[in-house]
Amino acid sequence: MNWKTILASLKNRDMQKRLLIVLAIIVVFRFLAHIPVPLAEPTQLKQVLENLMSQSNLGGFMNLLTGGTLSSVSIVLVGLSPYITASVVTQLLTKAIPQLEEMHKDGEVGRRKIQQWTRLITLPLAVLQSIAFIFILRQTILTSASGIDITAGTTMLQWVIMVSALTAGAMLLMWLGELITEQGVGNGMSLLIFAGIISQMPETLGTLISSIATVSSTEDALNVFGWFTLPINGEATLVAAILAVLGLITLYVIVKINEAQRVIHINYAKKVQGNRAYGGVTSILPIKLITAGVIPVIFAVAFLAIPAFVGQLLKTSSNTGMQEVGTNLSTWFQTPSSTTFLYGDMTTLIYPAVYFLLVVAFTYFYTRIVFNSNEIAENLQKQGGFIANIRPGKQTERYLNRTVTRLTLFGSIALGIIAVLPFVFEFAFAKFGYTGATNLAIGGTGLLIVVSVTLETLRQINSRALMVTYDEE
Fold it and tell me: What is the DSSP letter of 215?
């Protein structure tokens, strides 16, 4: 990363404009996150949700991922999930339908058409997910200690208003994300998720530190800016120091794995036209260890929420067998607690195990979508490029497929281990008799997303900086 070039590029008007656009849109996003859906008794509903999230790590993580929109029942509660789902659908259709694949190869015009279809698919998905979110909130709160039915006495017009508000919020977020990608710097969707997590990090950190130890004496505690009480007694200080060291080590490993790549050297044949020679140069084709980035983690968490939701629905059934299945699903797919692990409840390991397998599976799935070895091999052949000892065309495609598959094997396992590592730390602390280190899973997954998005955004800022400073020279 060339920091001198980045600092020099800040004098460029275009660079300033792009960065200001990103900051302005993030401010608008945070403003929208505090506009509630028109439901009855929003203040009472917010209190109930905050109590639920304090009792469930899964609810806390979903609130973290959505930037606090869950606790405030914001109009952008649905978030970017409809657009992300629509993007995956269109990418799969592009691979499966030859006409769409040809359109994708047509260049900017074809890609714009596919992008427009992605937006159109996002709308019905946003409507369906808005209805689903309302039912999830209703069922979760109805089966909680409060027993409030948030849709009681709701008329059809009120239903239309609620669903329309959530759908409009999802479509507005899609538009803001695309504005950042086109007019700003970095990937707009990733930056909005990043902004949501960052906005909740102080609260998450405060909850984590407060849960390390409860200090009753004011002589043994330090109040940090009025946010939380930092324990300074011997045992709590030791635990905090161990967590800090483990966090720094994990952060270092995340950065190294995220930046790891396999470099393939591409040779270009030398051509002679008249009295001039062209080509005869060597370039590189970098292939990242984790090509899919942090998307597999987000997908895995989203899919893990489905069994718990189905369990909540089955628990209300009149059939005893269905109620038992619902209870088991709700228990198995809740974010595990270290205290239940201490009592030998092995079902606690189901959630981390499924989480790990889903991260590995989605890493393979998304890598196959974003890395098109056939297209790369064709482009190299058209440009006269080749890999040493590998024939152009089909052999190059097979070589790239084999290389990416091997890299993805190690990358997916590494990403899965990093994703479940906070659970391991939490269980280890509990095993040694210290159950105060809770919410590690929430902070660890959030840290993974933040680091990945930060590195990718800095890389794009560096590329933009090189472009604008080169033009000035």
Answer: -
Long-range CB contacts (within 8 A, 24+) of 133-137: 133/77, 133/78, 133/166, 134/162, 134/163, 134/166, 136/309, 136/312, 137/49, 137/73
Domain of residue 155, residue span? 1-223
Match 């011997």 to its residue by tokens. 234
Identify whether the C-beta of residue 198 lies closer than 8 Å to the C-beta of residue 450: yes
26 and 169 belong to one structural domain: yes
Same domain, yes or no, for 186 and 327? no
Q: Does residue 139 sit in the same domain as residue 242?
A: no
- Tell me: the pLDDT tens digits for 37-80? 776 555 556 665 655 555 555 555 555 556 556 666 778 888 88
Distance between CA atoms of residues 58 and 79, nearest Å:
17
- 143/238 same-domain check: no
Residues 186 and 271 in one domain: no
Q: Do the bridges between strand 261-268 and strand 271-273 make them parallel or antiparallel, or are there none, so unpaired?
A: unpaired
Q: Which of 179, 199, 223 is the last residue of a domain?
A: 223
The pLDDT tens digits for 14-28 are 888 888 999 999 899
- Counted domains in the chain: 2
End-to-end CA distance of the chain: 20
Query: Is residue 87 exposed (0-12), middle (13-18) or buried (19+ Cβ within 10 Å)?
Result: buried
